[in-house]
Amino acid sequence: MTFADLFERAAALDGERDEADVRSALDDVRSAPDEGAADSGDASADGDAVAEPLDPSPARVVADADALAADLLVGGDAREALDALRAHAWTTLVASDPLLDDAEAVIAWLSDPSLAADWRAAVESWREPVAQPPGDHPALASAYRGGAMQVVSLDPSLTGPGAAAGLRDRLPVSVREPRAFATVFDPAKLYPDAVGGAYPGPDRDPRTMDSVRAGGDQHR
Fold first, then answer.
1. End-to-end alpha-carbon separation of the chain, Å?
2. Best label site of 100, 102, 129, 152, fewest CB within 10 Å?
């Protein structure tokens, strides 16, 4: 199922949802007791070994669970931000399983479990997985372990000026709200260092994840 299909299904649901609804739902999900988490700090919650952090790259990005859910259920700034990543195959969406678990739970809470499950299947084929120690913040742990230098989040505790300064002292990462990320993310400037050569423009349909030739002709 494509993201276009998922967006259409989400739009057909009854009720209006906004970013505040998504943010509130994620707060509830993350404040609930996690009875299945492992106790060891050397393994992820699902038992995978936690590898050494990858080298940081600005082409590697984490979308927090609220941004992922808002992309599907709200659209707007979150969808614009993530469309910029979906449109470029040389960028990487980094996400741990706990991060996707949170997003799936929020989507199921605000819509229905079937849509949430189909969304999870679609995003699994897009993201690059990374293991994280239990108890770590899913977005920050994904960024640190996965070498992502940018995080997209709706969480004011991560995007505020004080939080940003504190994070930069510990991690080479910038956390921005979706609108700010969409404004500063410049594929043309990133491409020469990330890939090499002149920027050819978007190389993928952001709603189907199919490759596209210059001028819009699709190929596989």
1. 17
2. 129
Do 96 and 44 form a contact (C-beta atoms < 8 A)? yes
Question: How many angstroms separate the CA atoms of 109 and 107, rounded?
Answer: 5
Which residues in the chain show pLDDT less than 50? 38-43, 45-47, 214-220
| Residues paired with 151 in a beta bridge | 62, 175
Q: Which residues pair with 73 in a beta bridge?
A: none
SS3 (DSSP) at 162: helix
What does the pLDDT read at residue 169? 72
d(CA 19, CA 73): 9
Q: DSSP state, 53? A: P
pLDDT digits (tens, 9 = 90+) for 6-32: 999 999 998 889 999 999 999 999 999
Q: How far apart are CA 75 and CA 114, in angstroms?
A: 19
